Amino acid sequence: WTTWIVPLVALVFYFVFRAAAITEKCNRVPALVNSWMLTERHIDHEKQYVVQYIMHSAAGYYVMGARLNATWALKLSYLFGVLLFSLLTQSVLKGS
């Protein structure tokens, strides 16, 4: 059973971490837009409107209503590691 479950788990973790990376990149878009110098004015209200819209839209990947970021991806990998460790220790203890 490990020959098909290990690649599947690796693929799921790959997609989770890629989605978290995209969400983290979405967090940096408002700062990028805000750094553009489109006009000579010191305060560009139209640009500020766009930046506020991007910030409040909270773009990124969501799982069951929660935003999938790097913190959640790491927590998921820690949880999987604990689960795997407990399953392996149970199988070793039952085998002895």
Question: How does the SSE layout of this entry go?
Answer:
Layout: H1 2-35, H2 45-57, E1 62-63, E2 66-67, H3 70-95
Antiparallel strand pairs: 1-2
Major beta sheet summary: 2 strands, antiparallel
Shape: rod-shaped
Instruction: Give the C-alpha Rg.
Output: 21 Å
**Strand arrangement across the biggest beta sheet:** 1-2
Measured between the Cα atoms of the first and last residue, the distance is 21 Å
The number of E-state strands comes to: 2
Q: Output the number of helix runs.
A: 3
Report the order of strands and helices. HHEEH
Structural class: mainly alpha
How big a fraction of the residues is strand?
under 5%
What features would you highlight for this structure?
4% strand, two-stranded antiparallel ribbon, mainly alpha, 96 residues
Write up what this structure looks like:
By secondary structure, the protein is mainly alpha-helical. The chain is built from 3 helices and 2 strands. A two-stranded antiparallel sheet has the order 1-2. Helix 1 packs antiparallel against helix 2 and helix 1 (2-35) runs antiparallel to helix 3. The chain is rod-shaped and about 75 Å long. The chain starts with a helix and ends with a helix.
